[in-house]
Amino acid sequence: MCESAPVNENWETRVAAAWATLDDCPQERAHEFRALIDTLVAELPDGSPLGLFEQASAWDSTGHPDKAVPLYREALARGLSGASRYKGRRAKIQLSSSLRNLGEPEEGVKLLTPELDAPSDELDDAVRACLALCLSSLGRDREGLSLVLGALAPHLPRYQRSMANYARLLVEPEE
Q: Rounded to whole angstroms, how far apart are CA atoms 53 and 102?
């Protein structure tokens, strides 16, 4: 439990293997999981945005969004999105969620709103879901529901067009 993969695997594979142990790591041993991530991060150059992201994620996933937020911010400031567009987008989603949990949903909205126009990838629905939660925390439930319905519509076996229209009409008045 909470153990690393063999050292001869590449770094990303070993990081993924470490993350695969998290669900089996009891909360009282979360510090061991974070130490495992820290050990892997130590292999990177100091201040690596990838390492900062992994450390932020480890703190966040073990119930410490307050410790994660500064690390996410630093990872993004040090160019995480340039090093990995995918991880940069994940950092924005996770940072927004943490900010919402810490009572700062307006910052989450500011961070995620531009992501609605970013190049599409598998994180699009996560962006919309997290943004919807931030909007709801600000009392903007119709906007949040619109985002969630819009994200759900393409996945439905039927009624895609209807649900997409309903989502739009929640925030745009009917002509």
A: 19
pLDDT tens per residue, range 65-100: 999 999 999 999 999 999 999 999 999 999 999 999
3 state DSSP class of 3: coil
CA 114 to chain centre: 15
- In the chain, the amino acid numbered 9 is E
Give the C-alpha distances (Å, rounded to integers) separating 25 from 56, 107, 126, 131, 149.
Answer: 18, 31, 25, 29, 35
**pTM for the whole structure:** 0.90
User: Would you call 174 exposed, middle or buried from its count of C-beta atoms within 10 A (0-12, 13-18, 19+)?
Assistant: exposed
**Residue-by-residue DSSP string for 40-93:** HHTTSPTT-HHHHHHHHHHHHHTT-HHHHHHHHHHHHHTTHHHH-HHHHHHHHH
Three-state DSSP state, 38: helix
Please give the backbone phi and psi of residue 131, each rounded to the nearest 5 degrees, phi first.
-65, -40
**Alpha-helix runs per DSSP H in 78-140:** 80-83, 85-101, 105-112, 124-137
Report the distance separating Cα 3 and Cα 37, nearest Å: 10
